[in-house]
Amino acid sequence: PVANATIIPSPPSHQVHAGDNVTLHCSVHVGSAPVTFTWLHNGQEVAQGLLLELSDVEVGDSGTYQCVATNQLGQDGHRVFRALSPELALEVTPGSPWVTVAAGFGGALSFLVLLMAVIVTWHWWHRISHSLPPIPLIPPAPPEEGEVLYTHVVVTKRAG
């Protein structure tokens, strides 16, 4: 028979914020397959299955959760065993507007830091490229007859 049903929450905290995702996993330490799992929220059946996935939780999702593990034994299958997990109290707190503002500010700050890095890099590259001596486009002396002439031309656009 099934025994020792437990709930493993993810995240492990029993207090979450509105908008978070929560997964509850039911397990049994003893029990022959097949084992079925039923989920209760405040004593009312809400789902079937090994996992209970709560997406985008709201304050109304607060309360107690339990899982009921069930299996059958015997050749006739009429002996039904149930194991009820201890209650898991889940508290969903409303999202704070300050958290949203801080996240928005953090994103804007990251963008500004990245923008400044690009500007500083461009300015540094621009100064370096303009501080190099110009490469003459005409060789200093005409080549001798039969001499191999290699020409390397670099064109840069200068401001102003």
TrEMBL record:
Q: Respond yes or no to whether keyword Zinc is given for this record.
A: no
Name the Pfam families for this protein. Ig_3
One cellular component (GO) term of this entry: plasma membrane
Instruction: List the GO biological process terms.
Output: homophilic cell adhesion via plasma membrane adhesion molecules
Residues forming the Ig-like domain are 1-85
Keywords from the UniProt entry: Disulfide bond, Membrane, Signal, Transmembrane, Transmembrane helix
Q: Is Signal one of the keywords UniProt gives this record?
A: yes
> Where does the chain cross the membrane?
98-125
Please name the SUPFAM superfamilies in this protein's record: Immunoglobulin
Q: What name does the UniProt record give this protein?
A: TITIN protein
The gene is Ttn_0
